[in-house]
Amino acid sequence: MTVFDRILPIASEVLREHRAIVSQLEWLVINRDLNARVRIILPESVEPDVERRKQCEAIYEVLAARIAPHAYPVQTGILYEATRDEACAGGTSYPLDDFDKVWLVDRLATEGNWANIAPETDGAPRIVFFSIKGGVGRSTALAACAWKLAQLGKRVLVLDLDLESPGLSSSLLPTDRQPMYGITDWLVEDLVDNGEPILDGMIATSELARDGQIYVVPAHGSDAGEYIAKLGRVWMPKVGDDGTREPWSARSHRLLRTLEARIKPDIVLIDSRAGIDEVASSCVTDLGANLILLFALDGSQTWSGYRILFNHWQRARVAEDIRERLQMVAALVPELDPSAYLKDLRERAYDLFLEKLYDELASPDAEGWSFDLANELAPHQPWAVRWHRGFAALHTLHGRLEQIDDDEIRHVFGDLIGRILRYLGWGDGYPKVIDGGAF
């Protein structure tokens, strides 16, 4: 009896045992379907070639026996397609380790695709606030960053894409300034070509801005309406008259581009859903983010979650496409002995990046994408956010921000904001960044 996690290792073993035959094929696709059963897909040219077809059937027979029950009878276990692109269409695909011509395609129940890394946007910089777990102060930090950037005269566009746990808009808008509609409304209306009429009704401006402006696009409008019924439809692809399908992540990206064209922001801040689901994958990998802030608490659940994600990028051979955009953030740094806490978090982040994302260098002088533990510019070097009782368990963050002063923002979020400004090349909103991550 074989479990799911053994499918790929066993498939690799079987294919290595038959490498001479596999190497003669133009390509081969291992197809894992929604029920976690495996077929192989071959070029159409193999089917009429009796000798090669029998060789491939023999390979599948061995594979099926070893991965049972995750296989089909030999008679139905092999499919044929004209091209590899057609064989992989509609699924998440990446090349299999140690093979130049073998690909894996996963058919998933959701359209989240952590292995599809969109290129960085070349317009207004987009920063995604992401965390493996909720409750780490991610949305509060985003609101504080928007507040400070607006005080510096920037036009800030804020999107609440934490659709299953909405609330960011209440941090930046009082109840009477909430817009009529939100992102969920647009995603549903867009399915029937009714998105354009509600665009203006889903953007509100925050009165917290001073020299700049904060444009807030919430998850839902002032009246959430049938939110659960709408939420169950936002993930739907849009099907055109010609049968083409636009996945929900592509629709979200189209919405973002439309909002940017209207508002012309200097910067876009995106609040992502926590966890490893289809909403988060869209925010992190599909929206062309320039900087992805990985909020972390120093606990086993945090590192286990990020290790799963980094493993996936490594296995899918896309780690190099995203790693330079990543940055660890130490969330809710405790008041007691913060330096020791940050030191421990930095070391665990370093171990993870070194194992999964940094290049292995033969010597200190060798070239590659890697950093020393103490390097202040390294992505594993955490940007710190203090825990502060003034921001904990607030009934309304908007009311808190109305009364806040620059010194308080500096005390709690100064390291994060200062480093964001340096990253963007926008000077120093807070000139003294915390040395070495210590307070």
How many extended strands? 15
CATH evolutionary superfamily of the largest domain: P-loop containing nucleotide triphosphate hydrolases
Largest sheet report:
8 strands, mixed
What is the end-to-end distance?
54 Å
Notes on the structure:
There is one protein chain. The chain has helices spanning 7-17, 19-22, 50-67, 84-88, 138-151, 168-172, 183-190, 227-231, 248-263, 278-286, 300-315, 319-322, 338-356, 397-402, 406-424, and strands at 28-32, 38-43, 78-81, 92-95, 102-106, 126-131, 155-160, 204-205, 213-217, 238-239, 245-246, 267-271, 291-296, 326-333, 383-386. The chain is of the alpha/beta class. The protein has two domains: 4-106, no CATH class; 126-437, Rossmann fold (3-Layer(aba) Sandwich), CATH 3.40.50. The longest helix is centred in the C-terminal third of the chain and has 19 residues, at 338-356. The termini are far apart.
How would you summarize what this structure contains?
With 439 residues, this protein is an alpha/beta fold. It has 15 helices and 15 strands.
Q: Helix and strand layout, with pairings?
A:
Layout: H1 7-17, H2 19-22, E1 28-32, E2 38-43, H3 50-67, E3 78-81, H4 84-88, E4 92-95, E5 102-106, E6 126-131, H5 138-151, E7 155-160, H6 168-172, H7 183-190, E8 204-205, E9 213-217, H8 227-231, E10 238-239, E11 245-246, H9 248-263, E12 267-271, H10 278-286, E13 291-296, H11 300-315, H12 319-322, E14 326-333, H13 338-356, E15 383-386, H14 397-402, H15 406-424
Parallel strand pairs: 1-5, 2-3, 6-12, 6-13, 7-9, 7-12, 13-14, 14-15
Antiparallel strand pairs: 1-2, 4-5, 8-9, 10-11
Helix pairs in contact: 1-3, 5-15, 9-10, 11-13
